[in-house]
Design goal:
Helices cover about 70% and strands about 0% of the residues. The protein is an all-alpha fold and about 425 residues long. Helix 5 packs antiparallel against helix 6 (about 115-140) and helix 14 (about 295-310) crosses helix 16 (about 345-370).
Length: about 425
């Protein structure tokens, strides 16, 4: 510990002497975080989760986001931590299923037509595997899980100032933390933060912290509404349904959730935040054929691609490359005229690119994440169910296979299930 203090003091002196105040402060904050991460790596994971709602807001000249740079540093510190303290790597069946899925994606390069596009994408997928492994290993107890959810909730709350300000400035667009951000990705991060707030409201011991966490989760319904991601609305609604099913006072809690949603809608109307796009996207929610992103047309093309390559797919990352060719061979396309479309669904993406083999491996990943292992076989605790349902539903309309948040949620679900199995671990039902 004295050596760390000496290093930090020397770094502070150099930073003040040679850097601007803002960069010096940022550098020192990063050094403190890395020092904390060396002792307890979960701190690094918690800060990564806090930055999820604003990922990509600061990108270097080489196109590397701040969260990726931080993630690489935290991962390196975690590896050193494992070596110095001689800790064993925690491996579970879910991790092995994930390795099998990503391995199959790598094998698909044998018949993939465009390595130049798929190669960097596969590199990202491998990095996300390492992030998943790290997340599973740094969460050692339920307090760590609460720490991660707490930082995620705090990051989402801070981001609302940016998203609401941007929404007011560009009134005919959707809320997100910054201009270049995908509103769907922002919506997923906010939705996960809502789940984190609910978890803290149930699990924390301090009454006031539980109350504040619950209120924060209710408040985040407002930016979630303004993000106008219908897939995220459905994912959060499904997750809340699972949560309510696991509570003892279901009717009371249903009224609380309904009241929070009603307040968010009423606040949007009273503040004049209901724009044309919000009304249009809400009215089209149940009419998939008229959705603004033309998902129905994209998925019809996906059906054609899948039927042509049902077993092994066209190769990882190849759907945008073959889309234009199969679009002309697909009947009933009425709206979509843009080439190189993303599949807009993790299931269509996996089915078309990795075939039935890939779909089976993805199903295996979720089955292993959900089921208890060992002598206490059965379903996992309520938070595991909520997290898995959240990404299962969000994956219907968003291709998340190369998104950090997807694999982080999966890791949190797996560890929450494993912690509930450990001696003294609880699966406390919410009131």
């Amino acid at each position: 510990m004295p050596a760390i203090l000496v290093a930090l003091t020397a770094a502070a002196a150099l930073a003040v002497a040679y850097l601007t105040l803002a960069r010096a402060a940022g550098g020192l904050a990063a050094l403190v975080l890395l020092a904390l991460s060396f002792r307890r790596p979960v701190w690094g994971l918690a800060v990564i989760c806090a930055l999820l709602p604003v990922e990509g807001i600061a990108v270097s000249g080489r196109g590397v986001s701040e969260i990726r740079l931080l993630g690489m540093a935290v991962f390196a510190v975690w590896v050193v931590h494992m070596l110095v303290f001689r800790k064993r790597l925690r491996v579970n069946s879910t991790m092995l299923a994930v390795v099998a899925l990503i391995g199959w994606a790598g094998v698909s390069f044998l018949w993939a037509g465009d390595w130049e596009y798929a190669g960097p994408r596969y590199g990202t997928l491998v990095q996300l595997l390492l992030l998943f492994v790290m997340a599973v290993n740094v969460i050692d107890r339920e307090e760590d899980l609460s720490l991660v959810f707490g930082w995620l909730l705090a990051g989402a709350l801070v981001s609302t100032a940016l998203s609401i300000s941007l929404f007011i400035t560009n009134f005919f667009e959707r809320a997100r933390a910054f201009e270049a951000q995908n509103p769907n990705e922002y919506g997923v991060a906010v939705g996960l933060a809502i789940i984190g707030g609910i978890y803290l409201a149930v699990r924390l011991k301090n009454r006031w912290l539980r109350l504040l966490s619950g209120l924060a989760a209710c408040y985040l319904a407002f930016p979630l509404l303004l993000a106008q991601s219908r897939t995220c609305w459905l994912a959060v609604a499904a997750a809340l349904t699972v949560f309510l099913w696991h509570t003892r006072r279901r009717l009371r809690n249903l009224l609380i959730v309904g009241a929070a949603a009603g307040v968010a809608v009423a606040a949007a109307f009273s503040l004049g935040y209901v724009n044309v796009t919000l009304i249009q996207r809400t009215s089209e929610l149940l009419n998939v054929a008229s959705r603004g992103s033309n998902r129905s047309d994209i998925w019809r093309v996906g059906d054609t691609v899948f039927l042509d390559h049902p077993v092994i797919g066209v190769g990882f990352g190849q759907f945008p490359r073959v889309y234009n060719r199969y679009r002309y061979a697909t009947h009933g396309i009425s709206r979509d005229t843009f080439p190189a479309r993303d599949p807009h669904s993790i299931y269509y993406g996996v089915a078309t690119e990795l075939g039935l083999v890939g779909l089976a491996l993805l199903a295996l990943v979720f089955w292993k994440a959900w089921r208890r292992e060992g002598p206490q076989e059965g379903s996992g605790p309520w938070i595991t169910a909520v997290l898995l349902v959240f990404i299962l539903v969000s994956g219907i309309g968003i291709n998340q296979i190369c998104d950090k948040i997807y694999w982080l949620v999966l890791a949190l679900a797996v560890r929450s299930r494993e912690l509930a199995q450990e001696p003294g671990g609880g699966n406390r039902e919410a009131e």
